[in-house]
Structure formats: C-alpha cells, structure tokens
Design a protein that fits this description.
By secondary structure, the protein is of the alpha/beta class. It has 8 helices and 39 strands.
C-alpha cells in the first residue's frame, strides 16, 4: 500500500521578523521545510505540501524534491489546511501529517510511529520539561489545547508533538465535519485525535523543536550541525572540533579529510584534503593531499593534491591551484591558474592570469587586469621570476625563465630568458634631511 504525507507549510511566521517565509529559512544549506520533506521521502512517502503565505517562493524552493502542493485559500487553522490537501490524497491507506517548522524530525522517528499505527489516528507525544503552549494528552479524551485545559489537565506534562499518522478514510469522513473554534473561527486538526487514538508517548522532546523565532532557528541549526558532523566522522572524516565546524548538507567530505576548528563549508564544496581552522569554503574542491591553512577564504576554487593555500589567503571564483603550487598569506587569486610548483607566497594579487610551472611571484606583485572597462589576461611563463612590488599591466606576457626586477611596472611583453627592469633613477642629496625637517616645522608653525 502506498504511503502519503502532508506537510503543513502555509503559515507566515511573524515572530521570525523576516521577509522570508518561516519554512524557507536556511539550515545548513537546506530550507527548513526541506529537512522534513527529505525525512518523509526517505520512507518512500508521496509528499503533499500545503502552502498559502509566500506560496510561489515555497514552491520554487521545494522544486528539487518533486513534491505536490495544495493551496489553503485562507489561514483558518490546521484542520482547514489539512482539508485543502484532501483532494491530493488517496481514498485509503496511512497518511503522515506534520508541520513544516520541525526540521529536527527524523525518518527513524516517523518510521517508529508508523510501526505503532493500527488504524484510525496515531499521535506521537513526549514528556515536556515545560508544557506551556502545548496541547495536553488527556487520557480518555484525546488532545486538549492549553486554552481549553482545566487546572488538572494543565498540570499534565505529556504533550502533543504535532506528528500524526491517520487513515485517509478517517480524514475524508471527519475533516469536512470539523467545527470552528472561537474567537478566530479556526478549524483544529487536533479535534481528530479522540479517546480512541493510539498515543506513543515516549518520543524525545528535542526532536520536536518547533522553530518560531530566530533563537529557535539557531538552536535547530546547532543540533543539525552536530548530527551532520558526527555522521561525517563515522565515515572517516577527522574533525578538530565536532561542535564548532559548520558543514552544509550539500557538501561532500571524503574519508580521510581533515576539518579544522570553526571551519565553514557550504555549497557544492568537495573536500578530501585538509581544511584548517576558521577557513570558509564555498563551492570549492580540495583534493586529497592538498592543504588550505588557517583563516583562508575560498569560493569557486580548485586546490589540487600537493598544493598549499594560506594561511589567510583568498581564492575567488576560477582560481585553480595545481599540484605543488603555493598561495601564501594575504594573496588573492581570481580567475587564474597557478601551474605545478608555482609560488605566490605573500601579499600579491593574481587576477585573470596564467602562472607557469615553477614561476615565482614576489611580495606586493599585482596583475593589473582591469582598465576600467574590460578585463585582460596576464601570462607568466614557466620558471619566470617576478620581483617584489612589480605591476604587470595586462594584457602582457612574461616569457619562460624571464626575470622582472623588483619595483618594475611592465607594460609590454618580456621575451623568454630576458631581464626587465623599470625604475626611475635614485636621487640622493647629502646632508639635507635635517634642513628639510626644519623647513617643515617652520611651515607648520606658520599655519598654526
């Protein structure tokens, strides 16, 4: 028999104080509601998502999951939201129902509730440390919302989690008969859970954290971060600190990879080598045997095996650091290839360039790639030596084995094995420094 699921994601989430729909707030590379859909689809469920506020944005965000949608015409409560999904559901069989703002819910817990389902309605419950705001599981009655609780019922700490399994036939028969509740005239899904429902009350409270504000969003992010990191560690990834590194669910980590304290890895990053402490990587590949050292920031880059980047380096989109190449501290590389063994050890900008194998780029060197209108390329041949504080004005080519003297501004091609030096002559005037200082003091005094 097929398995269906409904995710209630029509709410606005005003307490988030955000223009983004509550269920779309990101958690480690995935929208909040995406975590729930992922767990449901892991069980083979056909998922229907109920939408209203920010409808088009929710539809677009869930496109990768290929879910179906139902539209709630007006926000009239959870019962009405589920009723709007009824045409998308089969006539019989179990239906999982959950909210779109509980991203910590796991497939294992849903599977356990399914195993306990014997028809009718089945609800997951837990013993809350603080039951305020929860519907109470009242024996012989079902779910009683807090506003309707007697003092004795309000003292009950076993509460409704918001996760249900209900038979499609029950939904078809009873949803249209729900009565509205004053003062807002809302229809409550919890009215379907009566004294005949099956209650499984030993679930963990932490798994049902509802995300209603930014502090709860941060809490959920922390839980998911620890879950993911421990799952990666179980495959052979080494973490300096399981709790501080942040790795998106979209990232691929290979066994043997090493992730430093406080590292942040996002997007389509793929790491098999070493990522040092406090590095930030987005859409970046670090091959086995490569090292990205402390404090480096990389986006859209490739670091090949045997290459070393950092500390405190920046690789921008299109940076390609080949085997044995070295990009050192305070070096920025953009749209450039550093071939095998090439070095830019410190304080340089390499943009839109090809740096040949074994070439050395000195401190303070820049490739002047932008003329205010267009970008131009610089080519540095294999084995070339670029002295410190040189400016290579693109388009320009430095030939293989050529030497550019420190402090030169190069505006034309340098042939292979040639030496290029561009400097103004040094003028030295003896016994003049103190006289100049006296002149400056007099001028300053006159201005005062």
């Amino acid at each position: 028999m097929s398995l269906s699921a409904v995710v209630l994601a029509a709410g606005l989430g005003t307490r988030m104080r955000s223009p983004l729909a509550k269920v779309l707030h990101p958690l480690l590379g995935r929208p909040m509601v995406g975590w729930i859909v992922e767990a449901l689809q892991a069980l083979g469920a056909d998922v229907v998502v109920v939408v209203h506020h920010h409808e088009e944005a929710v539809r677009a965000a869930l496109a990768p999951w290929n879910v179906r949608f139902a539209r709630q015409a007006a926000p009239r409560g959870t019962g009405d939201a589920l009723l709007s999904a009824l045409p998308e559901l089969p006539d019989d069989g179990p239906v999982i129902i959950t909210a779109g703002d509980t991203p910590l819910l796991t497939a294992a817990s849903i599977r356990r509730l399914l195993a306990a389902h014997r028809g009718g309605a089945t609800v997951a419950a837990f013993e809350a440390r603080d039951a305020s705001g929860y519907g109470r599981m009242v024996p012989g009655i079902g779910i009683v919302e807090q506003a309707a609780c007697t003092p004795m019922q309000a003292a009950i700490r076993v509460v409704n989690s918001g996760l249900y399994v209900m038979e499609a036939g029950l939904l078809g028969a009873r949803l249209p008969t729900l009565a509205p509740h004053p003062p807002k005239g809302e229809f409550w899904l919890t009215d379907l859970v009566d004294a005949h429902a099956t209650v499984v009350d030993d679930f963990e409270e932490s798994e049902f954290l509802g995300v209603n504000d930014r502090s709860q969003l941060a809490e959920a992010r922390g839980v998911l971060r620890r879950r993911l990191n421990r799952a990666f560690a179980a495959t052979g990834v080494d973490f300096a600190d399981l709790d501080s590194a942040s790795v998106d669910v979209t990232v691929t980590l290979q066994p043997g990879a090493s992730i430093g304290l406080g590292a942040v890895l996002t997007g389509d990053s793929r790491v098999a080598g070493e990522v040092g402490p406090h590095c930030v990587l987005h859409d970046t590949v670090v091959e086995a045997g490569a090292s990205v050292l402390a404090g480096s920031v990389c986006e859209g880059a490739i670091v090949h095996g045997g290459a070393i980047v950092g500390p405190l380096a920046r690789l921008r989109k299109g940076a390609d650091v080949r085997a044995g190449a070295r990009v050192g501290n305070f070096v920025e590389v953009k749209g450039s290839v550093l071939h095998e063994g090439a070095k830019a050890n410190h304080l340089a900008y390499i943009g839109d360039a090809e740096v040949g194998a074994g070439a050395n780029v000195g401190a303070g060197t820049i490739t002047c790639n932008y003329d205010g209108v267009s970008k131009h390329r610089t080519e540095i041949g294999a084995g070339a030596f670029i002295g410190s504080n040189s400016a290579l004005v693109a388009p320009v080519r430095i030939g293989e084995g050529a030497i550019v003297g420190a402090g030169s501004t190069i505006t034309q091609d340098v042939p292979p094995d040639a030496i290029a030096v561009e400097r103004a002559p040094v003028k030295i005037t003896l016994d003049s420094a103190e006289r100049l200082r006296i002149h400056y003091r007099k001028r300053a005094a006159f201005r005062r």
